[in-house]
Automatic annotation (TrEMBL):
InterPro entries: AB_hydrolase_1, AB_hydrolase_fold, AB_hydrolase_sf, Peptidase_S33. One of its GO terms (molecular function) is aminopeptidase activity. It holds the Pfam family Abhydrolase_1. Keywords: Hydrolase. Gene3D superfamilies: alpha/beta hydrolase. This is Alpha/beta hydrolase. Residues 23-280 form the AB hydrolase-1 domain. Belongs to the peptidase S33 family. GO terms for biological process: proteolysis. Signal peptide: none annotated.
């Protein structure tokens, strides 16, 4: 079901699956500027047998109304959208799954509205863009070496251990990773994953993605997303589950070490997977998520 959701004069794409009486689960996609499309394709039908899945294309992304070039937009808008959606759906409290940058959002949301959330699942999250960018640059370097491009590989390696700030590292990573072309996806996962995109034509996909870049550009300009959330992570009291892929470059070892200090925590590592366990091992992922949401176990 497509739910007609508006907040702050913007239409935001929301899909809902499952029975209203089932435990509610909000999915927050990553990016910034990706979409819930892949998660819905691989998980909505599976998870909605036991849960009420609510998936969102965040403000300004893909099927949501676009953000104009001169329109104000900040990170807080995404947090407020979550809470307004919960209010409109009359959900007392819900569970949240945050993938990648969505994990960053989930932690911010939990800190701002702690009573709105029951449990949190962090799937391959970042809580510190500097740590993540350095690790991504290392992975990018390894792919340049495989291509025989030693100059760019060495540039990535130098940046990964240099003194650049979080914003600079992020920008360098975006610039260099894009030079990998079709090989860029291998940064995130060793496993090719197929999602059926026939729901829209090629032209429709192009039109949907047009303008989405302002989502990232404006968050980058604001700069709040580069603030480390390690203090908020240390103060997290909600039951939480960290899902990581064995080869995921986003949730580096330092993230895991900090998460291991959190009370009421659980953790699972999916072997032979990268940054998208919900796509790479959909059945196992669905089983783990359902067990944790329903029983607090893994």
């Amino acid at each position: 079901m497509i739910y007609p959701f508006y907040n702050k004069n913007k239409k935001i794409h929301v899909e809902i699956f499952g029975e209203e009486s089932s435990p509610a689960v909000l999915f927050l996609h990553g990016g910034p500027g990706e979409s819930c499309y892949d998660f819905v394709y691989h998980q909505a039908k599976r998870l909605s047998k036991e849960m009420r899945i609510i998936a969102v294309d965040q403000r300004g992304v893909l099927r949501s109304e676009k953000i104009a070039e001169d329109e104000p937009f900040v990170l807080q808008d995404l947090i407020d959208d979550c809470e307004e959606l919960r209010f409109q759906l009359r959900i007392k409290e819900w569970n949240v799954i945050g993938h990648s940058f969505g994990g960053y959002l989930a932690l911010l949301y939990a800190a701002a509205y702690p009573k709105a959330i029951s449990k949190i699942i962090f799937e391959c999250p970042t809580f510190h863009f500097e740590w993540t960018s350095r690790n991504l640059l290392k992975r990018t370097a390894s792919l340049f070496y495989k291509q025989g491009d030693y100059e760019r590989a060495q540039e990535c390696e130098a940046l990964s251990v240099g003194s650049h700030c979080s914003e600079e590292l992020f920008d360098h990573y975006i610039r260099l990773s894009e030079l990998l072309g079709d090989e860029r996806d291998k940064i995130y996962s060793p496993n090719p994953v197929i999602t059926d995109d026939s729901l829209y034509t090629e032209m429709e996909w192009e039109q949907l993605w047009e303008g989405t870049e302002y989502h990232l550009e404006k968050l980058r300009e604001e700069g709040r997303m580069f603030k480390p959330l390690i203090p908020q992570l240390a103060n997290l009291t909600h039951p939480s589950l960290l899902i990581v892929g064995e080869f995921d470059p986003v949730t580096c070892k330092r993230h895991i070490q900090e998460y291991d200090k959190v009370p009421s925590r659980k953790k699972i590592v999916f072997k032979e997977t990268g940054h998208t366990p919900h796509m790479e091992v959909p059945e196992k992922y669905g089983e783990v998520v359902a067990k944790f949401i329903k029983y607090g176990m893994i």
